[in-house]
What we know:
The protein has 1179 residues and is of the alpha/beta class. A hairpin with a 5-residue loop joins strand 1 and strand 2.
Amino acid sequence: MHLLWAVFFRKKGWSAKFSYSGQCDWSEGMSSDFVHLHCHTDFSLLDGACSIPKLVELSHRYKMRAVAITDHGNMFGAVEFYKRAKSSGVKPIIGMEGYIAVGSRFSKKEADPKYHHLILLAKNNQGYHNLAKLSSIGYLEGYYYRPRFDKETLAKHREGLIVTSACLQGEVAYHLARDNDKVAERAIAWYKEVFGEDYYLEVQNHRIPEQQKVNEKLRKLSRKYDLPLVATNDLHYAEHQDHFAHDVLLCIGTGKTLKDEKRFRFDGTDFYLKDQGEMRRLFQDFPRAIENTVEIAEKCLVELDFQSRFMPSFQPPGGKTLKEYFEELCLEGLKKRYSCPTQEAKERLRYEMDVILQMGFASYFLIVWDFVRFAKENGIPVGPGRGSAAGSLVAYCLGITDVDPLKYDLLFERFLNAERVSMPDIDIDFSHEGRDKVIQYVIEKYGKDHVAQIITFGTLAARGVLRDVARVLDIPLAEVDKIAKLVPSKPGTTLEKAFEEEPELKKIYEQGREELKQMFDIAKRLEGLSRHCSTHAAGVVIGSKPLIEIVPLAKNGEDVVTQYTMGNLEELGLLKMDFLGLKTLGIIEKAIQNIQHSQSITISPLELPLNDENTYRLLSRGDTKAVFQLESSGMRDVLMRLKPDCFEDIIALLALYRPGPLGSGMVDTYIRRKHGEEKIEYLHPLLEPILRETYGVILYQEQVMRIANRLSGFSLNEADNLRKAMGKKKPEVMEKFRQKFIEGAQKNGVSLEIAKEIYQQIVHFAGYGFNKSHSTAYAFITYQTAYLKANYPLEFMAAVLTCDMGQAEKVVEYVEECRRMGIEVLPPNVNVSRAYFSVEGGKIHFGLNAIKGVGEKAVDSILSARERVGSFHSLFQLCENVDLQACNRGVLEALIKSGAMDELSGNRAQKLKALDKAIRMGNLAQKNKNTHQMGLFGELEEGKGSRNDDQHLLEPVEELSFKEKLAFEKATLGFYLSGHPVEKFESLFHRYTSASLSELQAFRSEKKVLVGAMISHMKRIRDRNGNPMAFLTLEDQSSTIEAVLFHSSMEEAQRYLEVDEVFLFEGRISQRNGSVGLTLERIIPPQKVDERLASSLTLRLCSESMEVGDLVDLKSLLRRHRGNKEVFLEFRFKDRACALIKLSPEFFVEITDRLCAELRSTPFIQDFYFNRDHLELGG
């Protein structure tokens, strides 16, 4: 009825603003006679350049009563749009520009066109759900270039939808533009028959001649078929000045540059949100088409349901009720966890069960219990807990967590507050390998159509948008990369904030080339827009009915995902759970398997002694590479100062090492108090039992809750509300709690002044307080990895390498750590290596699966053949026995180049030369074997006898050079394993360098250093003045670092610059956003180092045992190496006296490797060293 009144008032010339309850709020402010019904936001990914906030803001500014969202094929932004429009007083019309297939949605045949566009608007809630179904079907059934549905599907789900014929890519306009008028009319007739009065012919005017032609035809057809016209503007960006930024966005999406004449682009610059006056002028010949936009807006009224809940119901076995089964499992678990439960444990469990039952969450807990049980029963590693759920005794008794909340004083109310009704949130960590199996179990249990993963969106963030825009503008990547790195890396940093924090950015903008200024201007317009969608790393949603009945679905790769994000799903009443993949759990599992294999010892991570001295010694010396959450240099520094000696110290450490506590001095206070260097004081005796474990420091949120509870009589639920209010810093709420806290404390005998001081203290520390439940749960994983590294280093590091073998940089780092620990990592070997890194004979063997280009099937074939025939002796024998389809030429070449066949007869060069012959002979031998003929090696083919008789098949080829070997290792393994190009110059660099690359992190900015390294990557560019400069990536055995060589230093150095060549680099440290770089000043080839840097040579002589003849030999030696470097003789005597003599110029030398070798082999020379030119070097 209200719609009739709305029409009546509009005809009288009065205006109405429609609210979302279906009523009309009359307002002179919203007097629009036009509504935009064809609008693309940034959820039309890399096509729409208008954000939802901007769309709604402009609609409100232009006093438009309503606006529609019609993104391409999806409803990604529907909920956000609905809420924002509603809060701004603009009526939201939820729609979509769908893709309708030419023929069946299942057809994947190439056709032109493959689909047509069609605007669909939800008239009511039924229409909204049908819109969601059409979009879902497009993704799940009809995806071919775009998410398509067909006319059959559209007719089936037509109820509640308004349809318009769309743009020039719409079916009707497409055929009219090509003068296929009869085809267009057939389409019109079909749509009219299906949608009746809810079908409109859409006219657009973007000043495109083709549109004028189509519009005139549409005018005639509207009369012929008695169909209304509706005017739209195909909005793809917010304002006219955004058109160029939108053009750049299209290039980002299509991978083109602006210089590409054949790139996809829009015709004209009119695809923005025009005000009513502009639209009336554009359609002055179509006045009724303008009016019809309001008519459609009045027809549309969707009310999203934020009240219903769609939680699935767990079905207990044996006809038991949810309550019975839930209580039964909890009580059984209590007996398992505590052989003799205390009264405290019984009462706590009863209390938690009552709260959970009262709040209706028993089914939720049973669902989580069930899939965690499945994981554990199937050998899938499960984390001990995560987040506040570790504070629940019910979760502990059900086996959902493995942290005893009573032992560690963890609070249930921090997890589930009966006074604040919200969904419980239990996040579970699984190993990466096991996570998908658990999700598959949930899908099978609750139904494929009831379960989906959750979508998430990547945006054009500050750094990324600069790089994207620069590529489109054809600005050199290396140059923009340097600029992008000036943007602070902390989350949430915008370009505007970056300009405030980094003056160099502003300088580049104001003083740099015009194209750089243009880059920044465009980037600012595009920043924050959605760039792509992906699958949320953890989120899974389970519905009480098929999800397609509740929310729209999409596909991301093979994953079925919701089109709405996690927050939207929770608002709409769906049960969201986080199934997280935690790599460390896989490391622990593999380490335990390695221990079982190599030492026949069975270990359970949950039964490790928490007082192991080896573990705490390892932690105290900061030896924590590969230890969970303790790897960073800052964390290792805190560890060495803290020197943890109990498990509680690890819990505290994980809570302490965060920006707030580090910046506040809390960490220093904690450490000083732990070591007795600072007195521990409590403002009141009641605080001591609460704060004793943290030496008087308020570290945990649970401590804030305990203080409010014990000092001021707050219930723990009230105390949790206080904690949350403090976190949100709402003044009015804080004041209310302050009064109650002080009054309650006074009732407990605390003076007014002390009560005020305690309250202020907890307000101050509440901002830094951490969730103790989470810290405790993760401390167990930290301890487990530290224990394994301290007590089973070989097995642990093999597991670490296995779990990181897809990341070459990590493997390099951990191989170096193994070497530091005295663990030898052997190259891959087809006769010894297993699929993964393994421990044999006190050494780690490289895993075959870690070789690039060698797949699992190939490795399985090699291992199977090895088990059958024993060790391989030659390439030919191997080729005769493996599956040559799985082990194809590429696989075998990678095995040779990586060194995995070094044990087989012949050198690497010979095997590479013989490879094709070996494959041919292997194929022939296998064919003969299958036909029962004699194989290549006759009776030896089953592994009997010697294999040396194939040596003649190898041609005499010179072995690869050391450099070639290393290059092949880098290509196949991702790093150098048997050596490193820098090693050749190790003794030379040892004399001059300040540090290895990995040690530069500790140096202060602007410090001058000398480092020996190899150039692994190089990008030559021109600076803003056209002068040459270069960006280099330097690499040594320990790490890599980025370096820049400016024009001032380039002229001398550029003749040396070659990738994969080793040099000594002189430069200054540059520290920015936590990363270290080098600004290079000089590059010196190894053969020139001594000549350039050494000013003199000092020989330390053994004065007590020297004879006259030794001096004669010394003179002769020095004369053989005559040069211009000064020579000093240093004599040391028994009484520790020392004499230094400078020799005359006739004994000055040229410093060479040959000289050094002779000096080392001379018995009476104890030592020698070079004196460098004067450089301010080192930390």
